[in-house]
Amino acid sequence: MAKRKVNKSQEIREYVTSNRAASAKAVVEAMQEKGIKVTAAMVANVKSKAGLTRGRRGRPRKAANLNGSVRRVGRPAKNNGDVALEALIEAKKFVAKVGSTQQALDVIRALEKLDSIAT
């Protein structure tokens, strides 16, 4: 009569449900005692697929800005040349107020001179 095959994944699930805190290494050792050859990677995969592991902890996720650039959530954006949508809207209002883009640049240059004199 042929030897009956063992469902390794089912054995791992049964062991882990009864021993929730068992590490992959501990599960491998327990399976070896039963005469079942499994690897730690297989144990980790079975635990993950069965939903018997906790979620990952690590870096915070990144969120997309309105202008499409990506920055970390909860931290101020670095000045890397990207311009926020709100700043572009305000700049457009400013250009409309002074008349043209060239006049807006002239006003900004005059403001820079004024700042350098004041400090």
Residue ranges: pLDDT <50 for 5 or more in a row? Answer: none
- Numbering strands along the chain, what is their spatial order in the largest sheet? 1-2
Q: How much beta, percentage-wise?
A: 5-15%
Radius of gyration from the CA trace?
A: 31 Å
Gross geometry: rod-shaped
- First-to-last CA distance: 96 Å
The helical percent reads: 40-55%
Sheet having the most strands:
2 strands, antiparallel
* Beta strands, count: 2
Describe the overall structure.
Helix content is 54%, strand content 5%. By secondary structure, the protein is mostly helical. Among the domains are: 42 residues; 39 residues. The model has no long low-confidence stretch (mean pLDDT 80).
Q: In summary, what is this structure?
A:
Helix content is 54%, strand content 5%. It has 119 residues and is mainly alpha-helical. Helix 2 (24-34) packs across helix 3.
Give the helix/strand layout:
Elements: H1 8-18, H2 24-34, H3 40-49, E1 62-64, E2 70-72, H4 85-98, H5 101-118
Antiparallel strand pairs: 1-2
Helix pairs in contact: 1-3, 2-3
Descriptors for this entry?
119 residues, mainly alpha, two-stranded antiparallel ribbon, 5 helices, 2 strands, 54% helix, rod-shaped
